[in-house]
Each structure stands twice: as C-alpha cells, then as structure tokens.
Amino acid sequence: MSGIHVVWASLAGGLVGTIALTSGLRIAQEVGLTRMDIPLLLGTAFSPSRSRALVIGYGFHALNGLAFSLVYAGIFLAVGHTGPALGAGLGLAHGMVSGGALLNALLPAVHPRMGTPWTDSEETPLLEPPGFLLANYGPRTAIVSLVLHVVYGTLVGWFAAGL
Amino acid sequence: MQPRRTDGYAPIRDYALIGDGRTCALVALDGSIDWLCVPDVDSPSVFGRLLDAERGGCFELQPVEPFEAERAYLEDSNVLQTTFRTASGVLRVTDLMALTHRDDLSPLREVVRRVECLSGTVRLRWRVDPRFGYGTAATRLERRAGRPFAWAGADALWLSTWNLGEQRFEGEAELAAGDGAVLAIGVSHGEPAVFPGIDELVRRERRTHEFWPRFAGRAEYDGPWRDAVVRSLLALKLCVFAPSGAVVAAPTTALPETLGGTRNWDYRFTWVRDASWTIDALLALGYDDEAHSFFWWLMHASRRTQPRLQVLYRVNGSSKASERELALDGYRGSHPVRIGNAASEQRQLDIYGALVSAIWLYVDDGNHLDRDTAKEVAEIADLVASIWRRPDSGIWEVRSEPTHFIQSKGMCWVALDRAARLAEQGELPGGHAARWREQADAIRDFVDDEGWDEKRRSYVRATTMRELDASLLTLSLLGWDDADGDRVRSTVDAVRRELGHGPYVYRYKGEDGVAGGGEEGAFLTCSFWLVDALARTGRVEDASALMDELVGLANDVGLYAEEVDPRDGSFLGNFPQALSHLALINAAVSIARGRQ
To answer: Are A125 and B293 a contacting pair at CB < 8 A?
Structure first.
C-alpha cells in the first residue's frame, strides 16, 4: 500500500474515529459515567458563552482528531505496518498521554478560563481543572477516555490497513 | 489579651484565618499556626495541633517572656497583624499566605511571617513541627540547600529565615527596636521544592498586601455594619477554592459542636444547600465574577449525578466523600475526628430548592441559561415534582430515620415555583411547567394542612415532630407566601419565642439520632436568619437591634464559628463558618433594603 494511501485512509479513519470518540463521550456523560466534556473544555478556551463554546469545541476537536490521525499515519509509515491492533496500541498510548499530560497539565496551562493548582484568590476561573488522569470529572473518566481512544486508534488502524 | 490554652488547646475564639484561595491556616492568639492543610484546603493537615495537641504539629512563633497579645487584620485584607507586649519590649508579627502568579517561579504554597521589634528588646522563639498526613504519616527531617526540610511521600515543607542566624526549625533570637526578621514556610506537592529568594518573597508579600484591599474595595455596599459585611466577604473569599470556584462550608474538620461530644464533622466540602445564599450574597455585593464562577462549578460538579443531586461535593468537583475516623485525640478530647462526610449519601430534598433558587438569582441578574443547562434544570424540576412526597433527612442532616420535614417540603415548593417562573420567562423548556405549578400548589396544601400547628400559630419541624425548627425561618427568606403573610410572620415570632435565648437561636430541641451528641450550642446562622426574617416581615428596628448584638459576638478579628455556647460565649463547631458569614451579609443587606 502506498504512503499516500495510508495518509488518506488514516485521515478517513480519524474522521470516523473522532465521531465515535465524541459520541461515546457524550453517551458516557448522559449515563452519568463522567462529567468530561472535551468540546466544552476546548471551546471555552475561545469563548465564555457555553453555546458558542460547544460549536467551536466540536470543530476544534474534529480538527484535533484529524491531526492525530496524521501522526498515526506517520508512525504506520515509519514502522512499515498498519492494522487495528497497532492502531489500538497507539490509541492506548494516545489516551494515556491525553489524560496524563495533554488535558491534565497542558490545557490548564494555556486555557484562560480554567483553574490550575496555582490559581489563587486573585483569579476567578470558570472551569475546574481535570486533575491527574481526569479524576476530577468522575472516577471512571480515565477508563472511559482510555477505552474511547483505543476505539479511535483501532478505527484509524483499520482504515489505514484498507478495512 | 492574655492568650491561654487548656491541655494544649487554644479556644476556638482565639483563632484568625489566613489563606490564599487554595488552602487556609489558623493562627492562634499566642502566635501558633495550629491548622494548615496542604496543598489544598481538603488535603491532609501538616499542622494539626487543633485536633491533637501532642501529635498534630504546629508552627509556634512568640516571645520567650510572658506576654499579652492583640491583633487585627490590616484594613480590608486577610493579612493578620499580631502585637506581642512583654515587660521588655513590643514585637509585631505580620502573617499572610502569599498570592502567587502562575508565571512566577514560587513555592506551591507559602506562609510568610514577618517579625518587627517596635520598642525595647524582645527575645523571640520559634518552633516548626511538621506532621504530614494529619500527624499520621512518617515525616522525615533533613537539610536541603542549607534549610531545614521535612518530607513524607510526595509532600515537602521547608523553612527559610532571614536575620535569624542559622536556618533551623527551632530556635531563639533577640531583636532590638528597629530589628526585623522573616520566616517563610514553603510547601510542595509532587514537584521539586522552590526555595525563595528574599527579593521574590518581598514581591509576593507586596502583591498580597495590594490584592486584598483591591478585592474588598469592589464591594457595592454602603449600608449599616459595613465593616462586619466586608470582613464576612473577606472570610468568604478565603473559603472559595480558587482553582475551581467552589466554596467550602468551613476550612476545618471535626471541631466539636459540643465540647467532648461526637458531633464532629468535616466541613471542607461544598454543600449544594449553601448555593442560594452564596450567589445571593455575592451578587448583592457586586461580585458577579465570583458568583458566575461558583454557578459554573455547581452546574458542572453536579452534572454526573443530575437530575439527582448529591448533598455535597468535593472542591475538585468529585462526588466521593466517604467518611472515616482518624486516630487523633480531637479538639479538647472531642472525638471521633472525622474526615469525609457521610451526609453525602443522605436524601435531602431541600437542596433542590437551593439549587433552583440559585439559578433563579443567576438569571435575575441578567444572565441566560444555555440549552444544555436549561434542559438539566427542567429535568431537576421534573424529579422534584415526582419525589417531594418522600421522607428525607432534612436541612440539619439528622441521622435518625428520614421523615417529612416541613422545611424540605417548602424548599421543594421553591424549586417548582422558580422553575415554573423560569419557564414563563422562556429560560426553561415549558412543556412540563403546568405540572410543576400543579405540584407546587399541592406542596403548599400539604404544608398548610400537615405542617401547621394552629395552637402554636406556627409551622412545625416535621409531620412526625411537632416542635419548632429554626430552619423554618428560611421559608420567609425564600419567598414562601408574602413576606408579611400571617403564617410566616407568626412562625418567625414562635421561633424567636421558643428557640431564642437572647441573641442566640437554637436549631431545634428535639431528636437528631446522634448518639453521645450532647447538648449543642446555639447556631449563629439561625440568629442571622432571624434578623433577616424580621427585616423582611417589616420589623426593621427589631432586626437592627438584634443585628447590633450579633455583630458584637464576633471574635476580636470579626470571625464567627458555626455555633456559640450561650453560657459563656465560647465558639463551637467548625471555624470560620461560611454560612454564618453569608447569613450576616444577607441579613445586613435585607435591613439596608428595609430602611430604604
């Protein structure tokens, strides 16, 4: 399979995977497994209006999903192998980095409306920080997030392997 | 004043609070910091002498000679200044928790104690005795970078001193008039220690000194008792957990409601019930940002359990608050010492009224609900319409069998009434509004039929408990009936008559299911609710006279605990209590409005 095919197929997988991840997260919210709302967290970095933030957040999250699928494609090409199992493994690593560093440490550092462990009385943030492994949003959040990232990775790997 | 201790414990009244929006420290009149949890207000203590004089740990700083002490906060700030007078001289200690900026490299948490000798000579002694994990973790003492350093697991604490010779956890030094020194405690949690230089530390001190008056100066209040209102606001701000916007009920745990008794609860959580009072007070004083931050946190924290609400949430938004007991002696032998709070698992119907009332106030301030929030609120109203007939544990979280508390039913009415009004305004989906109004009317009939005692001319505590309950005052405050409606007015009178004792008001005098609880003190919030209710029922002069008395009951720095012992005025319960200060603010605002 050509490199350009892997890239396009990964992008398609990234789109489907992002839809699956976002939908899964919404379902998890509705059934009370987590308070994690990635579109809201991302969107409120740009707007304090909850409605506007959700629109921006969904768009931003979709772009992130596509961008990450390109990273996956790069790894597939580097190791010369594709497939759902490798995708799932990358998804697991992606989920761990996402819960352990991206959302926990980096997002609060750049998000203008989110508290951090260093936020003091001088500030009045509108959003609580996720905490390590996103535990502030519910004890099962880390598991939900990991499972959904594995689903995302599996889909990207599956698409890249040509279904 | 001559500081005193009993078996190593200072009176609760002798404490003042400093903090930084993440955690707080209690400073006793004799200069000892006896309570500090790190890194956050609900984390384990590193100084916990408040709950165990032997094993808790503390940071003592005082003259070696016998002394008298007086203190005050610097004007409109949370910076505490204590003046020690000895036979040989006068010493002043300025205590603060430093505010930092996220761009500065500073310790995660920092307590700064600046010492100045004002006259004569004074020999000073200090002793830092860190005991991590509520005094139960193995604390290791070492030296790092020339400083005394203590650590346990991921936590570390160190002392930096200037002008006191070799840096040690314990020592003495003689200061003459004009001499000054600084002692600073730094804390880290899960990150490398940051050792401060004096220049950076002075910058943080200045930043802290400048922030508090700027914050207090935003208060839009020119009514009576302004100093008490601003002090309450500043105390409330210390109860705000800045990283999330949550407000703790108090920054302490297990201070007893009866000396030697078992009512020793952990208040380092946010109670949904306080939501309405909090938003009301913050908006009334013009602190819209803080009110919005708390509102966002509240709606976000409760999302996982909605439409059902948990009674309380942790400041980080978690719903886990399992209760356990620590092997500590407890304040003056009052044990068990509990952390966590089992009340989180109770059914308390009044919290729905508190939440929807808070939302009503938020919208009334000119805000709008987004579609998701509106849907959530409508689901909460649907739930209330279907569960209000069930028994609950009530506002006082009694541990006896659930029953039909009248105040709980009244708050369910508040929830449905406000929801119906929000729907009329187009803020909530209106599909179920007719049912909400119908059920609100049914609640009103139930309360008037089952909860009214004609002989006493008052509503009663519960359908199965025919005595009075001070929480019934809240019906007047939250718009049950017209403010000066006959039944509300006579209930206010009956509460004052039967539960009042001078300026004090007891919560109730009946059963609450707490074994060994003993006779509790008078509940200060109820006294302020009485003031508020008197003002709202048109008796502003009565309310003002009572308010004068209550303002005089604060300690020397203007703070209130949860309860007070009417026999000697000593404070009981967790300290300082946010609800007492919220009730003070709302009572003062009601009187100011009544006078207009």
So the answer is: yes
Instruction: Name the β-bridge partners of B81.
Output: B72, B94
Which structure tokens are listed for B456?
A: 């006493």
B245 contact residues in A (CB cutoff 8 A): 115, 124-126, 128
pLDDT tens track for B104-124 = 788 999 999 999 999 999 999
> Token pair of A5, please?
């095919």
pLDDT tens, position by position, B145-198: 889 999 999 899 999 999 999 999 999 999 999 999 999 999 999 888 889 889
Half-sphere exposure of residue B305, counting CA atoms within 13 Å on the CB side? Answer: 20
Q: How many CB atoms lie within 10 A of CB B324?
A: 11
State the pLDDT at residue B371: 86
Q: Which residue of A has its CA nearest to B239?
A: A121
What's the pLDDT band for A44 if we cut at 50, 70, 90? confident
Instruction: Tell which residue, B23, B43, B25, has the closest CA to residue B35.
Output: B25
pTM of the predicted structure, to 2 decimals: 0.89
CA distance B320 to B324: 12
Three-class DSSP category at B128: strand
Q: Give the DSSP per-residue string, B211-265.
A: HHHHHHTT----SSSHHHHHHHHHHHHHHEETTTTEE-S-S-B---SSTTSS---
Q: Is the Cβ–Cβ distance between B17 and B26 less than 8 Å?
A: yes
Residues in chain B: 596
Residues 187-216 of B with CB under 8 A from A: 189, 211, 215
Give the sign of the dihedral formed by CA B585, CA B586, CA B588, CA B593.
positive
DSSP calls for B286-345: T-HHHHHHHHHHHHHHGGGTTTS--SEE-TTS------EEESS--GGG---EEES-GGGG
DSSP B41-104: TTSPEEE-TTT-TTTS-EEEEEESS--EEEEEEPTTSS-EEEEEE-SSEEEEEEEEEPP--TTS
Which residues of chain A make contact with B213, given a CB cutoff of 8 A? none
A121–B20 C-beta distance less than 8 A: yes
Q: What is the ipTM of this complex?
A: 0.73
Assess whether pLDDT exceeds 90 at residue B261: no
Decide if B316 touches A, using CB distance below 8 A. yes
Which of B103, B155, B296 is the best mutation test for A, with the most CBs of A within 10 A? B296
Exposure of B119 in the CB half-sphere (CA atoms within 13 A) = 8
State the average pLDDT over residues B202-217: 96
Taking phi first (over 0 means left), then psi (-120 to 50 degrees means alpha), and beta for anything else, what does residue A19 get? alpha
Whether residue B380 contacts residue A57, with contact meaning beta carbons closer than 8 Å, is answered with no
Query: For B568, phi and psi rounded to 5 degrees?
Result: -135, 5
From CA B550, how far away is CA B565, in angstroms rounded?
13
| Distance from C-alpha of B219 to C-alpha of B367, rounded to nearest angstrom | 20
Note whether B304 contacts A: Cβ–Cβ < 8 A.
Answer: yes
**A121 to B19: CB separation less than 8 angstroms, yes or no:** yes
| B324 interfaces chain A, CB cutoff of 8 Å | no
What is residue B146's DSSP assignment? T
Residues of A with CB under 8 A from a CB of B: 29, 32-35, 49-51, 54, 109, 115-129, 131, 135-139
pLDDT at B514 over 70: no
CA distance B594 to chain A (A): 32
Quick check: bond before B39 cis, omega within 30? yes
Q: Cβ–Cβ contacts within 10 Å for residue A79, how many?
A: 9
Tokens read off for B582: 């919220």
Q: Are B420 and B357 in contact (CB under 8 A)?
A: no
Q: Is residue B22 within 8 Å of residue B109, measured between CB atoms?
A: yes
What distance in Å separates the CA atoms of residue B370 and residue A47, rounded to the nearest whole number? 13
